[in-house]
Structure formats: structure tokens, C-alpha cells
Amino acid sequence: MCYNLDMRRLLSFIVCLSVSVALFAQTWDQLSELEKYAVAFSSNLFEINEENHFDFSNKSNAEEGKQILKDSWGITDYQSLVDNFNTLEERGHSGAYDELLKLLDKHKKKSILEIAQAENLDVLDTSRLYYASTMKTVLGSHGIEAWDEGREITTLRWGIGAGYISYEEAVKLLEPVVERIQNDYVSWDDYMAHYIAGRCFYGLYSSNYKTLAEKAIKAAENTRKTIPYEEIKFTAKNADKKHVMTFDKSIYKPSKEALRWEEIQKLSTQEPGEKVLAELEKFEAEYPESKNITFWIHLDSLRRCAESKAVVGFIESYGAYLEALPAENEISINTKYVYMYALNDIGQPQQTLMVFDSLPDSMKKNVYFYYQYACAYYILSLQTPVESEKYIYESRAAAAFEQCEKIGYVLNDFIKNWIKSVK
Fold first, then answer.
1. pLDDT per residue as tens digits for the range 293-342
2. From CA 95, how far away is CA 129, in angstroms rounded?
3. Is residue 238 within 8 Å of residue 185, measured between CB atoms?
């Protein structure tokens, strides 16, 4: 009996191993023509993630691909996969790059920091503006489109393996992308160099663009050992032949001013506090045109190590800048919360309520803003000497605190006991 059981296990193992070997044994010649092009154009991330290039649908690494989609893209199902594809098609990083080129053209006589200040750019977009200024003469008319296109194909291949999309639908989506790449570049090297330049643009968020680019170049060179790129043909009918790229051109080489700015960007990733604040103040004194750009880093550090009165004064000194921001801009929203908290802390609840009234309706329902609203009425109930007003303020504060609790805010015992005392 034991012998038969062991034999069955052995046979089962051999069958599984045979299936696995068969998947990995797929060859270039077994791929359709479209699959060959898709494999070539998505080879970089497949190589970096040590996946089988010739397993077009990524069946042999389905779980790994599924995890990458979730961790790096937030893709967990069919809809999020297709939404991501459409976003890359419609805008992606290449869209952001193109918008920055328009700003450079709009403000031809201004410095990068002056443009960033005028257009209310944040720290990262200012770094990207430096990139666009340097790389536009290298990249040419197709910019970093290759970066988005390569990722579109890669995520679709991972999506097939993950079971999020059928092979047929994925192929239908990637066909025009493959054709566009064939038309827009003169060779695989030209395409891949543009792709790697886009990886540099992406890497600006943490200033590790050089490392990412070097890793991508190494991966590209490694794929030559397995993928016969000489078989990949390009029509080049829409190619920018004056800006054909090679790998050595794909790595972003920042100017002296851009490198100085990178020091400020790195501050934005550090824990806010006195050290960051001191460095910022030094930089802002040297480059006063940077003050709007560094506003949030400055405020975030200031609220960690200064009194609320100083925080209020700082925010109010930037009135014109904040008014120019869209109502639902992240910096605008975050600043209003810090402002409300600080105003309550220094005993200016009427001003807190005015800020609350200025919020978009969607944000008024946010429990943290609503809690500050409740606190403002609580403070008013303590400040007023008029009993009729005190009753109104207490009622509004108690109702607001209770609503906060209903929508998930954990009230402390002091507030809970106070609500009971005024009921």
C-alpha cells in the first residue's frame, strides 16, 4: 500500500514538473507574430521580475504577476486592470510630461522655480519640470510615451495570467499599442531607450532615477541573450528621426540647479521637524521664488515643532497662494485642516467655523473636519457669558460630537462625559 501511494505521489510530481517544464520550454518560434512584438515591447519589466518572456500569458508566474499588479498598481480585478490601461492610454506619465513642456513654452523667459511658483506646482512636479527642460531636446516628439506603452502591454500580460482578463480581450487592447510602437520608433533600441527615459521620469519621486535607469539598461541588455530583436520590424512612419535614442542618452543628467532642488525634494520625504525646517528656511532665503513650492513641507514641519499661533500666522501669510489653489487641491484641503486645528487651539472658534463653511461639501462630511467643527462650538460655549448663546453652542457641539462618533470617530472620556452633562 505504501509503495502504491508513494508511486502515485511520484507520478503526480512528474506530471506537475512536466507541465512546468513545458511552460518554460516555450520558444520564440511558438509565439504568434503579435505575441513576439508584445513580448519584445514588455520585456523590461518581465526581465526585472525574473519572469519567462516566452510565456505570453504569464501562466507560469501567475501568482507573482497577480501580486505585482496588486502591490505596484492597485489592480485586483478586471475593472481596475482596464481602468489602469485606459489611464495610461489617455494620460499616464507621458501626459504629465507633455503638460510640463507646455509650461516651459508658456514661460520661456522664466526660470524653472519661477514657472513652478507661477503655476503652483508641488515639489515633485518641480523636479519633473527640471527633467522636461533638460530632456526635451533628447526625447523629441514622442517624449516618454514608450514608458506608458510598455507598461500597458506588461500589465495586460500579467492580467491574463491573474485571470482578470481573457487572452482575446487583452490582445484586442494591445494590438493598436503594438502597431503604434512600430510606427513611432526606428528600432527596438530607440523604443527601449525612450522607455528607460520614462523610467527616469517615474524615478524622480524618490530621486532614485539613475539606479532605476541603470537597472533597466542592464535588463534590456540581458534580454538580447534570449529575444531575437533583429526580427522585430519597425515602419518608423511616425518616428522622430532627428531624435533617435540610444541607451546612453536615456539616463537623465540633471543640471546643477536641478541637483540643488533634489536636496529639497529629499527633505519632503524626511520626518518633518526642526532640522527640516531649518534647511527649508535656508533654501527659501537663497531662492525666495521657491516659497510657494515648499509651502506644505514648511507648514508640516512648523506644526510639529512650533506653537499654534505661529502656524496660524504662517498660513495667513500665504493667503494669496492658497486662494489660487483649486478648492479640492490636496494641499488646500490639508492646510485648511491644520488651520482649523490651530485656530481652535488658540481660541478662535469663529474663524474655525468660517474655514469649515469654505470647504467643498464633500469635505464637510469628513469626520476629522467635522470634529474640529464640533470643537469650535464647544469652545464658543465656554467663551460666551450669555446663557442663551451658551445653550445653543452646547447643543450644536454635543450633536456634532455624537455625529462624529456615529461615523467612526472615537471620542475621549472627557467629551463623552461633557455630552452627558449638557443633555
1. 999 999 999 999 999 999 999 999 999 999 988 888 889 999 999 999 99
2. 13
3. no
Please give the Cα distance from 129 to 126 (Å, whole number). Answer: 5
Q: Which residue is it, cell 519633473?
A: 128
> How far apart are alpha carbons 160 and 276 in whole angstroms?
46
Residue the block writes with cell 491644520: 338
**How far is it, in rounded angstroms, from Cα 335 to Cα 322?**
9
User: 260: helix, coil or strand?
Assistant: helix
User: Which residues neighbour 44 within 8 Å (Cβ) at sequence distance 6 or greater?
Assistant: 150, 192, 195, 196, 216, 219, 220, 223
d(CA 119, CA 407) in angstroms, rounded, equals 37
Whole-number Å distance between alpha carbons of 49 and 225: 16
- pTM score, whole prediction: 0.83
397's grid cell? 457641539
For residues 195-224, give the mean pLDDT.
95
- Type of residue at 276: V
**Which ranges constitute the DSSP H helices of 72-185?**
78-90, 92-106, 112-118, 123-139, 145-162, 167-184
Closest CA to 177 of 157, 199, 204: 157
Contact of 156 with 86, CB cutoff 8 Å? no
In angstroms, rounded to a whole number, what is the distance separating the alpha carbons of residues 257 and 271?
24
Residues 397/377, Cβ–Cβ less than 8 Å:
yes
Where along the chain do its domains lie?
Answer: 30-256, 329-423
